[in-house]
Design goal:
This protein is of the alpha/beta class. The protein has one domain: Rossmann fold (3-Layer(aba) Sandwich), CATH 3.40.50. Helices cover 29% and strands 21% of the residues. Strands 1, 2, 3, 4, 5, 6, 7, 8, 9, 10 and 11 form an eleven-stranded mixed sheet that branches. The chain is globular and about 60 Å long.
Length: 291
């Protein structure tokens, strides 16, 4: 059993949670470059939280340029035990209108211009992504949302697109045929990297608009998204505060905590020391366990 340290990855303003105690911004250096911003560290209802603005304060980093490896490494290095990502999404389903929150449980990754793994030549690993979301954290996030009156859908497939442009109508229709429920630009490779770093990860999507498949609605426009984002932000802050209140007093182990025990494949004699040094936070536990 251990204490919770919850990492929250989200947009500007999310970290302005009422009741955050002992709050301070800290810089965390990583071998993968600079994270999107400093981490805001504080306590809510006695639980340690670390907030990371995914696009940097002021939303200055576009989706493709978000250094997800540095972000996840920084959160792991700072002691996070679990992650909750909160992201704006577009809806591909009539029954998911703007303002609805969605607990994501599956992904289709269509990004193509991002570093997607901590591992590579000199240290190879293959983690399973069959069930990419932590069921425990997703359940806690859903319960927290319901406790503060947020309308939430439990379960949804997220199409991760490269961006920064929005979909064409043909693409939007295709994603609906694939069975996708929502669309966004930031959850991949974030979710994959969280799994490689042995961090249980949940994603709460906040619907800002219908994607352009819907003839009765205007095509996606930034102004409308920003307006809905502002409306969603207070609900997101309330969700985080409720989550802090609802966490069990102690954190029991998760299977994700040791996922690398069965994922590291490079023989010890063939491992690159330089690569291993970069992986100290991500897989230091697993490497020590193999000695």
């Amino acid at each position: 059993m251990s204490e919770w340290t919850i990492g929250i990855i989200g947009g500007s303003g999310l970290y302005e949670v009422e009741g955050l105690e002992d709050a301070q911004w800290i810089a965390v250096d990583t071998p993968w470059g600079r994270p999107s911003d400093e981490l805001l560290v504080g306590r809510l209802s006695g639980v340690k939280f670390l907030f990371l603005p995914r696009h940097g304060r002021g939303h200055r980093i576009p989706p493709t340029k978000v250094n997800a490896r540095a972000n996840i490494d920084a959160l792991k290095r700072a002691g996070c035990t679990d992650l909750v990502a909160i992201s704006a999404i577009g809806s591909l389903r009539e029954e998911l209108p703007p303002g609805r929150f969605v607990i994501i449980d599956q992904f289709i990754d269509r990004t193509f211009d991002r570093e997607k793994s901590f591992f590579g030549e000199g240290m190879v690993a293959h983690v399973s992504m069959a069930e990419p979301i932590c069921e425990r954290m997703s359940g806690l996030a859903a319960a927290a949302a319901e406790s503060v009156g947020i309308e939430i859908a439990k379960g949804g497939c997220y199409l991760a697109m490269e961006g920064p442009q929005f979909s064409t109508r043909a693409e939007s229709e295709l994603y609906r045929l694939w069975g996708c429920d929502v669309i966004g630009m930031t959850a991949m490779p974030e979710a994959k990297l969280a799994r490689e770093a042995e961090l249980p990860y949940a994603l709460v999507g906040m619907v800002t608009d219908y994607d352009c498949w819907r003839p009765a609605t205007k095509a996606v426009e930034v102004a409308a998204i920003i307006a809905q984002l502002s409306a969603n932000a207070e609900n997101a802050r309330n969700l985080v505060a409720a989550l802090a209140r609802m966490l069990p007093a102690e954190r029991s182990p998760s299977p994700i905590d040791k996922v690398l025990d069965s994922a590291l494949i490079t023989a010890p004699a063939a491992r690159d020391p330089v690569m291993l040094a970069r992986l100290d936070a991500v897989c230091g536990r697993a490497l020590k366990a193999q000695r």
